[in-house]
């Protein structure tokens, strides 16, 4: 349990999610039935393990899921819905 206490996600003001603590990272894909209803999650691409990640929150990064700083150029406001 000591490792779990070190794992953190910090939401930065108008910027990325900062994930630390060696959290594994992989793409999750929704598997749907013939009607388009979701059935389950399937693991897709796995990313190399890192101690920290800056994950895109604005949706505009050219290196998704990672932040490339684009949020500053597009003036991302993380408080709007």
Can you give a write-up of this model?
This protein has 81 residues and is mostly beta strands. It has two helices and five strands. The protein has helices at 2-6, 70-73, and strands spanning 8-11, 17-20, 26-32, 38-46, 52-55. The strands form two sheets. The chain has a three-stranded antiparallel beta sheet with strand order 1-2-5. The chain has a two-stranded antiparallel ribbon with strand order 3-4. The protein is globular.
How are the elements arranged and paired?
Blueprint: H1 2-6, E1 8-11, E2 17-20, E3 26-32, E4 38-46, E5 52-55, H2 70-73
Antiparallel strand pairs: 1-2, 2-5, 3-4
Brief characterization of the structure:
The chain has 81 residues and is mainly β. 11% of the residues lie in helices and 35% in strands.
- What are the segments in which pLDDT stays under 50 over at least 5 consecutive residues? none
How many DSSP H or I helices?
A: 2
Overall pLDDT, averaged?
A: 93
* Strand order in the sheet with the most strands: 1-2-5
Approximate strand percentage: 25-35%
Main β-sheet, in a few words? Answer: 3 strands, antiparallel
Helix coverage percent: 10-25%
| SSE pattern, N- to C-terminal | HEEEEEH
How far is it from the N-terminal to the C-terminal residue, by CA?
35 Å
Structural class: mainly beta
Q: Main attributes?
A:
81 residues; mainly beta; 3-stranded antiparallel sheet; two-stranded antiparallel ribbon; 5 strands; globular
């Amino acid at each position: 349990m000591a490792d779990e206490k070190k794992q953190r996600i910090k939401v930065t003001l108008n910027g990325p999610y900062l994930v630390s603590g060696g959290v594994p990272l992989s793409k999750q894909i929704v598997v749907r039935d013939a009607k388009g209803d979701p059935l389950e999650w399937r693991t897709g691409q796995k990313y190399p393990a890192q101690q920290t990640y800056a994950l895109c929150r604005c949706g505009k990064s050219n290196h998704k899921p990672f932040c490339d700083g684009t949020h500053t150029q597009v003036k991302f406001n993380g408080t709007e819905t």
